[in-house]
Amino acid sequence: MSTVETEAKRASPGATNAAPTTREPTGPEKPFAGVVPLLITLSVLTLAAGLGWIAWEIYVETPWTRDGTVRAYVVTMAPEVSGRIVELPIVDNQFVHKGDLLMMIEPTDYKIAVSRAEAAVVQTQINARNAEREAKRRQHLVAIDAVAVEQAQSFQSTAIASRAQYDQAVANLDQARVNLARTQIRSPVNGWVTNLLAQREDFASVGQKLISLVDADSFWVDAYFEETLLHSFQYGDRAKVRLMGYRHIVIGHVASVARAINVPNAQPNDQGVATTNPIFTWVRLAQRIPVRIHIDQVPEDVHLVAGMTATVEIETR
Fold first, then answer.
1. 5 pLDDT band (50/70/90 cuts)?
2. Alpha helix positions (H), 72-145
3. Residue 148 has what pLDDT?
């Protein structure tokens, strides 16, 4: 072969020498290739199991309910005497202390009644004393046969009646003084005036509800727990109350559990026959029982309002 043919053969594409290829190491060169996915899978399963256990403890084992309501006693003030309102030194939603004046009714007529009752007491007292003296004199005269026994007995009866009239006048005076004192309506508790509709110069009638006070020292929470959770807590267990409008937690404890709820099936109809509601035998809903939560600690920024919605969680012992 000539030199020219040799050079042409080397220059042809099929005659090029391919470089030797390298292979990826296998076997012992990557020992953890299949372990990493397994570890990731186990980690995910462990995390899921942990979160599931936490969810079970929170939603099943721990007694809690979203059905809670803030409650408080409301004291309703109604006049015990009638008259025109001449003083009303309070406004709606104002905080008042026990003994503060809330309202005054025109006292003129009741002052006059006290004066009349005092005069009646003086008059009947004089009459009673005079009748007693005359009865005693007649008793002495009977002893010496100066007057008849019948006349002495008549004077004795008059003295007794006069004494009764005096006692009645004293009672009327006490009643007049009580009515005068009732013209001033004062707060029986520490609390807030709520829904005030009365105005000065209005006429107040006996028994008419005019002022309502929310007792500041009476707040509590009614938590309605399913009957299946009542066994899991005891009296005195610590309770956390989360109000819907606040982030802060109100601390309290279980004070009591209601002993009765309404049973519709126990109500008789017009004929006295028990009323029975049809139900599905395979569906039984747990009744909700009111549990009273006594409030122990209220954060400074929390303003309790009767009727607020609350979530209650009880820390079991």
1. low
2. 108-143
3. 60
Please state whether 40 falls in left (phi above 0), alpha (psi between -120 and 50) or beta: alpha
Q: Please give the structure tokens belonging to residue 86.
A: 């001449």
Q: Tell whether 157 and 223 lie within a shared domain.
A: no
The first and second tokens of residue 116, run together, are 């009349």
Q: What is the pLDDT of residues 126-153, one digit of tens each?
A: 888 888 877 776 666 555 555 565 555 6
Q: What is the pTM (predicted TM-score) of this model?
A: 0.71
> Do residues 135 and 159 lie in contact, with contact meaning Cβ atoms separated by under 8 Å?
yes
In which domain, by residue range, is 274 found?
62-73+217-263+270-315
In a domain, 282, yes or no: yes
Q: Over the range 96-129, which residues count as b (16 or more CB within 10 Å of their CB) and which as e?
A: beeeeebbbbbbeebeebbeebeebbeebbebbe
Picking from 102, 91, 73, the residue whose alpha carbon sits closest to that of residue 217 is 73
How many domains, the chain?
2
The full length of the chain comes to: 317
d(CA 271, CA 268): 7
What CATH number is attached to the domain comprising 235?
Answer: 2.40.30.170
CB-based contact 243:308 (threshold 8 Å): yes
